Amino acid sequence: MKQKRKTSLWTKLYSLALTAFTVFVLLDTFIIPRAYVVESDDSTGSEQSASAAVSTETDGGGTASSVASSVTENTYTDGNISITITEYREYDTSIYVADVTLTSPDYLKTAFADNTYGKNVTEKTSAIAQESGAVLAVNGDFYGAQNRGYVIRNGKIYRDTASGSSQEDLVIYEDGTFEIVTEGSVTAGELLEKGAVQVLSFGPGLVENGEVSVTADEEVDKAKTSNPRTAIGVIDELHYVLVVSDGRTDESTGLSLSQLAEFMQGLGVTTAYNLDGGGSSTMVFNGTVINNPTTDGNTIKERSVSDIVCIAY
Amino acid sequence: MSASLTSPEKRRMRRTSLIYLCITLFSGLFSAVYEHFSYGVYSNYMVYLFLLPLVGGVLPYAVLGLTPRSPVPSCASSRLFNSGVAALTVGSCLKGVLQIYGTSSVYLAAYWAAGILLSVSGLAVFLLGQRRRRADA
C-alpha cells in the first residue's frame, strides 16, 4: 500500500512536470514576444498610409521633391513607382498579381512588425504596411517562426545562422537584381559584402534563369498540395511581380508549388521565389487587403506575421 | 522474479499493456485528425506518433504479461521506463505540431534526452534486478 502511494505520487509529479514544461515550450514558441532589435522610425519610412493624391517627399536620386501620385482601384503611378494589380483565374484559384516598375531599387523594401526584429513579434500585413507607408505590400518569410536562417533586411544582418545547407534564400542586391542561393554555399556576411540588401529565407526558389526550378513533388517541409501562396519575381531591370493566391476555400482551391512556379514563369519572370503561404498570404494595395486571406478556409481574416515585402518610399 | 499467468504481477503487465493500447489508439486518432486539418503539410513525427506507445508499451508489456515464465519488472523500473516513453511520445507529438506549423524549438531536445535517459534507466534497473536474482538463486 505504501509502495502504491509512492508510485502514484511519482506519476502525479512527473505528469505535472511534463505538462508544465510542454505548456512553457508552447508559450515560448507561439506566444511570448521577445524583441531583439528595435529599429528607429526613420529606418522604415514615415507612418502614413499611401493613398490617392498623396504627395510624397522623395525621388530616386535621394534629393527631396514632391511627387504627385495617380491612384485608381487597380493602379498606382507617380514619377518613380508604377503598380498595376490584375486578378487572374487559373487552377480553379484567384491569383492577384501586382506588376511593379520602379525607377530605383530603393523602393523595394522590407519591414518588421512593430518595427522590431524579434520572436513572436507580429502584426497584420496591412498594419505593417500602414506603419511603413507602403503603397503595396505582401507578407514576407515569417522569419520569427524560425530560430535559424539568414535574416538580412535593408542592408543589415539580423541573423547569420544557417538553417541548413540546402535552404534556398532569395537575395535582393542593391541594384535590384535577384539571386537564389543556398545557405550552405555562402555566409550571411559574404552576402552582405556582395551587396545584398534583403535576404529572405523561406523558399523554395520557383524559377531560375527563366526555367521552373521546383519539381512537382517538392515538399521541403512545406506542402506540395494546394494552398494560398505568396511569391515574388523579377521580370527585368527594376520590373517586378508580387503574387498572392487565394486557397482553402470553395471559391479557390489554392496552388501547389509547381503550379505557382509555372504561373510565375508564364508572367515572364527570370527569377521567382516562394514566400510564406497558407494563412499568411496577404496582399495589401493602398491600405486595402485585396485577396481573401484565410487559415481555416471558413473565416476570411488576416494572420499576424513577422515581416512584409513592400513598395514604399 | 517470474510468475504464473494468473499472478497479480502478470495481470498488472497485461493491464499496463491495455493502457498503452488505449494511448496508441488515441495517438493514432489524434495524428489522423491533426494531419487532416494541416492542409497537406505532413510531419513524420505526427504520422508515426502511435509507434512510440505501441513499440514502447503495448508490445513489451504484452510479452511480459502473456509469457508464462518471463520475468516481471519492479515498480521502479516500470516507472522509469514508462516516464521515458511518455517523454518521447509527448516530444514527438510536439515536434509534429511545430513542424506542421513551420517552426521549431530548442527545448525539444529536452524531451529526447529525458526520454532516452529514463527509458534506458528503466531497462537497466530491470536487467540489474534480474542479474541479482540469478546470482542469489
A few lines on this structure:
The complex is a heterodimer of chains A (313) and B (137). Chain A is an alpha+beta fold and 313 residues long.
Structure, described:
The complex is a heterodimer of chains A (313) and B (137). With 313 residues, chain A is an alpha+beta fold. Chain A has one domain. Chain A contains 4 helices and 25 strands. Chain A is globular and about 75 Å long. Chain B is mainly α and 137 residues long. Chain B has helices at residues 8-36, 44-47, 51-66, 75-101, 108-136.
Question: How are the secondary structure elements laid out?
Answer:
The complex is a heterodimer of chains A (313) and B (137).
Chain A: H1 2-30, E1 34-38, E2 56-57, E3 66-67, E4 70-71, E5 75-77, E6 81-90, E7 93-102, E8 108-112, E9 116-119, E10 123-124, H2 125-132, E11 134-139, E12 151-153, E13 156-159, E14 168-173, E15 178-182, H3 188-193, E16 196-200, E17 205-208, E18 211-212, E19 229-236, E20 239-245, H4 257-266, E21 271-275, E22 283-285, E23 288-289, E24 304-305, E25 307-312
Chain B: H1 8-36, H2 44-47, H3 51-66, H4 75-101, H5 108-136
Helix pairs in contact in B: 1-3, 3-4, 4-5
Number of helices of chain A: 4
- Based on helices, strands and strand pairing, what is the structural class of chain A? alpha+beta
Radius of gyration of chain A: 21 Å
Global geometry of chain B = elongated
Low-confidence segments of chain A, ≥5 residues, pLDDT <50? Answer: 43-65
Largest binding interface between chains: A-B, 31 and 23 residues
Specify the overall morphology of chain A. globular
Total of helices of chain B: 5
Q: Which secondary-structure class do the elements of chain B indicate?
A: mainly alpha
N-C termini distance of chain B: 11 Å
The N- and C-terminal alpha carbons of chain A lie at a distance of 75 Å
Tell me the number of strands of chain A. 25
- The strand line-up of the biggest sheet of chain A is 4-5-6-7-20-19-21-17-18
Helix fraction of chain A? 10-25%
